[in-house]
């Protein structure tokens, strides 16, 4: 019989403090480099300690940095090319929303995916959210930049050379993201080393290291999907059948007005603990987001970005994370 162990809040608080003091620093700001690091510097100073950074002056050689500021260029280059667009009524795809049959509980809602010409998608994204009926976001995470948007490939690097050399591989996937300030992405983590390059606009990140997993109150929620009806402009939200549960972070770092006190009471480890790391990634900059880091993302105004997902190493760090995830804190 396997014995179950638990850790208490004091042990968790010590862990949060020690990780910041020994590896990440006590400031809640992400370190900014003024130029790309050498592969060995990147590996030694950021990948190995699992530490994020922002690299400025990293994309000047990309034609995209100037070309993609022109709506006409993008629409002429892609034109009638069919792309995938994620639609929601509120800009919150892959996030927790009120349960369709019980507004006192929550479910995990995935966006409706619509396929349309790039020109139609681009205009919908640019204009969406203003009337409050639909928010569109190009966020297909299936190597879409090298497939749906392949015609733009020569406008960017196929990979980040110093990162590829440091990590010993080429990216597993390259994705294009186009959204406006009405879209947001709730706290989640990825099993990839992420190089996130902003071409236009700005991305705003809240970041928490993997050791802060218990602060996000990951719980199972029933999965649901939005359906969008173009003739009426309305949405339905339906639970999956058969029922499937998705483990997801419960914390909304920006509670709506009137819910602040309840959120603070429900999730004290988050709101009473160390502040998340915060950063804004501007056009021409790259964020290195280490594997397993939790991140919450907003953008402004309309933002276009390309991200490179490199396979993470399933090494001792992954084992440590799984162990921490398996123990039960005393909340």
From TrEMBL:
Coiled coil: none annotated. GO terms for biological process: negative regulation of gene expression, epigenetic; primary root development; regulation of abscisic acid-activated signaling pathway; regulation of brassinosteroid mediated signaling pathway; regulation of photoperiodism, flowering; regulation of seedling development; response to abscisic acid; response to temperature stimulus. SMART domains: JmjC (SM00558). Residues 136-325 form the JmjC domain. PROSITE patterns: JMJC (PS51184). One of its GO terms (molecular function) is histone H3K27me2/H3K27me3 demethylase activity. It comes from the Eukaryota. One of its GO terms (cellular component) is endoplasmic reticulum. Belongs to the JARID1 histone demethylase family. This is JmjC domain-containing protein. It comes from Beta vulgaris subsp. vulgaris (Beet).
């Amino acid at each position: 019989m396997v014995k179950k162990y638990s850790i208490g809040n004091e042990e968790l608080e010590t862990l949060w403090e020690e990780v910041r003091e020994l590896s990440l620093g006590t400031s809640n700001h992400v370190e900014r480099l003024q130029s790309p690091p050498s592969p060995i510097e990147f590996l030694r100073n950021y990948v190995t300690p699992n530490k994020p950074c922002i690299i400025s002056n990293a994309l000047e050689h990309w034609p995209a940095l100037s070309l993609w500021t022109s709506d006409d260029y993008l629409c002429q280059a892609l034109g009638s090319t069919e792309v995938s667009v994620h639609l929601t009524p509120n800009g919150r795809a892959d996030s927790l929303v009120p349960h369709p049959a019980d507004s006192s509980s929550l479910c995990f809602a995935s966006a409706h995916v619509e396929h349309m010409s790039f020109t139609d998608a681009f205009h919908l994204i640019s204009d969406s959210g203003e009337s409050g009926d639909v928010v569109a976001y190009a966020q297909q995470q299936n190597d879409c930049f090298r497939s749906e948007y392949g015609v733009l490939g020569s406008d960017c690097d196929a990979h980040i050379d110093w990162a590829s050399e440091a990590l010993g591989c080429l990216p597993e996937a390259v994705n294009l993201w186009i959204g406006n300030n009405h879209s947001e992405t709730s706290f989640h983590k990825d099993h990839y080393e992420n190089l996130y390059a902003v071409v236009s606009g700005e991305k705003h990140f809240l970041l928490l290291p993997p050791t802060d997993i218990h602060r996000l109150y990951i719980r199972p929620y029933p999965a649901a999907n939005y359906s969008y009806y173009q003739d009426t402009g309305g949405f339905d939200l339906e639970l999956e059948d058969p029922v499937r549960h998705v483990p997801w972070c419960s914390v909304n770092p920006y509670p709506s007005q009137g819910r602040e006190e309840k959120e603070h009471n429900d999730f004290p480890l988050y709101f009473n603990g160390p502040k998340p790391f915060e950063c804004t990634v501007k056009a021409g900059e790259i964020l290195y987001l280490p594997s397993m880091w939790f991140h919450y993302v907003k953008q402004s105004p309309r933002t276009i970005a390309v991200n490179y997902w490199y396979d993470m190493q399933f090494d001792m760090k992954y084992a440590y994370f799984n162990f921490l995830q398996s123990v039960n804190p005393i909340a």
